[in-house]
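User: structure tokens for this one?
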Amino acid sequence: AHGSGPGCCDGSLGLLFDAAIGIKCFGVAISYLIIIGGSMSRTMRGVGVDPASILCTRRFWVAAPLLFVAPLSYARQISAMRYTSLVALLSILLITVMILAFALPTHSPELDPCDGGGDACRGTAHAATDFESTVRALPLFIFAYTCHQNVVSVTNEMRAPTAPRVLGVVGSSVLVAMCVYLVVSLSGYFTFGDAKVGGKYVLKSDILDSYPQDLAIVSVARVLISVVVLFCYPLQSHPSCSCFISLVRAISQRCGRSAPQETILRPLVVTIFLVATVSIALVVSDLRVILSVVGATGSTAVSYILPGLAYYTLHPELASRWFGLALFCLGCLLMPLSLTMIFI
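Assistant:
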């Protein structure tokens, strides 16, 4: 491994990995703060807090999480987040059950997605959509399955990091994520379909915005989703800062200078990361744009371009290296195409 970050190759390729992972996790961390700011400000208004109160402002809830995530962000090992990650997983399961409950037929007013309006918020669910919409949504799917940056840290901290155990961790993680995604996405889509109110789709990019905001269960879900992203924020800061530290050391070495000591460099990089992500999240509030751009650039680079390039470069003796080249070419095609669809 090159440097202290999760780069996997020596030389320039390792630097590319560090840069891609660092930037990608930086963007994801910003999206987490945007989610917290939007969810908690709406929750405060939903429970009757005075709209003029600071507790109802998005910016307060973007900055407030620093009190909780900063100590975990400064931790050197990712295992320090195992308990908070467990709480986050349990919260995700509860939110999934709630969304599924809204999709099932019921006569309970607490689980009426149309807020007493009959079927006014329900539309038609289509089996497929047009090519343009599919390509525009593709970065979100790439983003959803990109957590490669933590594999090296998790492997290094496992008690017995054998190949079968590592593959078991990776496989089970992807399987659990896929099951949750399928339940949430299908439940939300079959609940609202293509229904529109005032020319806008009822089904929002943040699915919790689609449900009646005065329901207690929705307020609870907003608090839970805030807990999830709050505890996931350090899981992005850890690999991102490690990669930036690795880049600083590599650049310092190439310039003939010695990098600062670890005890100074890491706290400095983490502090800059915290301040920068909060500052951007205070200004940007469009979650879909952030997720789409991060998915089209950082996630595509980490999932397709760099792994394919690394495999093709490091295994010249294998015939399967051409699959790596094909993966690299696919990523190079997806990135500009996805970005074009996002902004056009």
